[in-house]
Amino acid sequence: MPRRHHLHAALARAGFRRLLGVRLASQFGDGVLQASLAGAVLFNPERSASAADVAAGFAVLLLPYSLIGPFAGVLLDRWSRQRTMVLANIVRAVAVLGLGAEIAGGVGGVGFYASALVLISLGRFLLAALSAALPRVVDPAELVTANAVSTTCGTLIAAAGGGAAIGVRALIGSGNAAYAAVAAASALPYLLAALVALPFATSALGPSEDERRDRDTVRGIAVGLLAGAKHVRDRRPVRDGLTMIGVHRLCYGVTTVCTLLLYRNYFHADGFFRAGLAGLSQVVAAIAVGGGLAALVTPAAFRRLGAIGWPVVLLVAAAVVQIVLGLPFRLSLLPPAALVLAFVAQAIKITVDTLVQQYVDDEFRGRVFSIYDAVFNVTLVIAAVLTATVLPADGHSPATVVVVAVCYLAVAALYAWVGGRDRVTAAARTTASVR
After folding, report:
1. N or C: more exposed end of the chain, with fewer CB within 10 A?
2. Cα–Cα distance for residue pair 307/267, rounded to 1 Å
3. Alpha-carbon gap, residue 100 to 186, rounded angstroms
4. Eight-class DSSP state of 142
5. Terminal Cα-to-Cα distance of the chain (whole angstroms)
6. 395 near 260, Cβ under 8 Å?
C-alpha cells in the first residue's frame, strides 16, 4: 500500500486528528518551557553554569522520574488516558506560573529543580499516555505512518515553540524577568491541549472498563511493573529495540551536552553562524528540519528495509556524520551535523515506537512506554555525567567524537547480528512446525 494512502487513512480519522492536536499544543508548550529553562540556567547573564552544573541539572530533573516513571506506566494502564491528558495539562499550566515566579526571583538550587521536576515529569507522563493511546485511533496498518506523523510533528512543534521563546526573549531582553515571562507563557498551550482532549469520551483512548475497575496498590503496581518487564523480555523485537535505542540515546546525549558546552564556551560568531543561545537556535532549526525529513522517509524505508535494516543504516550514517562533520569542530558544520543526527534519532524513535505498539499487548502498553521513557531519561543523565567528568568545560574533545562514532558502529553491527539470528530462529521454528 503506498505511503500516501496510509497517511490519508490515518488523517481521515477524527480521533487521530484530535490526538495529534493534543500532542501539538502540549509539545509547543514544552518547547517554550525548555527554551526558557535552558536560557535561564545556561545563558542567563545573571547566572553561571559549568559542565558539572549541567550534569546536575539533568540528573535532578530526569533521574527521579526515571525511577517512578515505570510505576506511573501501570497507572496509565488503569486510569482513563483521556482524563490523564486533560488533568496533566491543567496542572502543568498552573505549575509553570509558579516556576516563572521562581525564575523572576532568582531562585536556584533544590527548590528550583524540584519545581522543574514536576513539570518535566508530567510532560513525560503525558507523552507516554499519547503513545499508548495511538493504537486506539488508527488501524494497525497505519501505525508506522501515524507514529511518523505524531512524533515528528511533535518534535517540529516543540522546536517551533523553542524558537518562538528565543525570539520573544530577544525582543524583551535577557535576565531573570525575561526568562520568567517566557516560561509563564507556556501555560497557554498547555490549557489549549487540555481543551482539545476534553471532547474524547473517557473510555475512548483506553484502557477498557474491565482494566480500569481494578485499582492497584503500591504492591500491585510493583507486580504490574514486573509483569511489563517480563512482557518485554518475551518479545524479542521490543527487547532488542529498546536496547538499541538506549545505546543510541547515550551517544546522542553525549553529543547534545557537548554541543551545549561548545556553543556556550568554545565557539565565537562567524558571519551567519552564531554562538551562544542564538547559535543554539540555529541548531534547533536544523534539528526540526531533520525530524521533518525523518517523518517523510521513515514509513517507506521501514516497510522496505524492515525494523532491523533501517536502524542499522541510520546508525552507520550517524557514525559517518560524527567523523566528517563533528570532528573538525567548525561552527558552520554543526547545524548540518545536527540535521542528520536529528534525522537518525527521529527515524529510530519512530521505528521503536512502532515495534512497541505492534508487539506489546494493550493491557501492558502504558507501562512498557513508561519503561521506554525511563530508558530515554537514564541514558541522557549518564551522558551528562560522562561529559561533566571526562570533557573539558568548553566541550572540545576530538577523542569523544571518535568514541561516539565507534559506539554507533558497534551497536549497528550488534543489532544486525541479533536481528539476523532471530530471523534464522523464527525460520527454523516455522520449518519444524510445517514438518
Report:
1. C
2. 38
3. 10
4. G
5. 33
6. yes
Are 284 and 411 spatial neighbours (Cβ–Cβ below 8 Å)?
Answer: no
pLDDT for res 214 = 55
Q: Is the dihedral of CA 322, 328, 329, 333 positive or negative?
A: negative
Least confident of 38-47, 173-182, 302-311: 38-47
Q: Name the residue with higher pLDDT: 252 or 434.
A: 252
Rounded (5°) CA angle 356-35-342: 45
| β-pair partners for 273 | 270
Classified as helix, coil or strand, 330 is coil
CB 47 within 8 Å of CB 277: no
Secondary structure letter of residue 19 according to DSSP: H
Cα–Cα distance for residue pair 348/352, rounded to 1 Å: 6
pLDDT for position 203: 86
Give the per-residue SS3 of 297-325. Answer: HHHHHHHHHHHHHHHHHHHHHHHHHHHHH
One CATH from 1.10.10.10, 3.40.50.720, 3.40.630.30, 1.20.1250.20 for 3-207+227-427: 1.20.1250.20
Backbone angles phi, psi at 194, to 5 degrees: -65, -40
Q: What's the pLDDT band for 174 if we cut at 50, 70, 90?
A: confident
The pLDDT tens digits for 227-259 are 878 888 888 899 999 999 999 999 998 998 889
Mean pLDDT (whole number) for 61-74? 66
129 neighbors 83 (Cβ within 8 angstroms)? no
Do the beta carbons of residue 56 and residue 64 sit within 8 Å?
no
Residues 362-384: tens digit of each pLDDT: 778 877 887 787 787 788 888 88
Residue 378 · residue 245 · CB < 8 Å: no
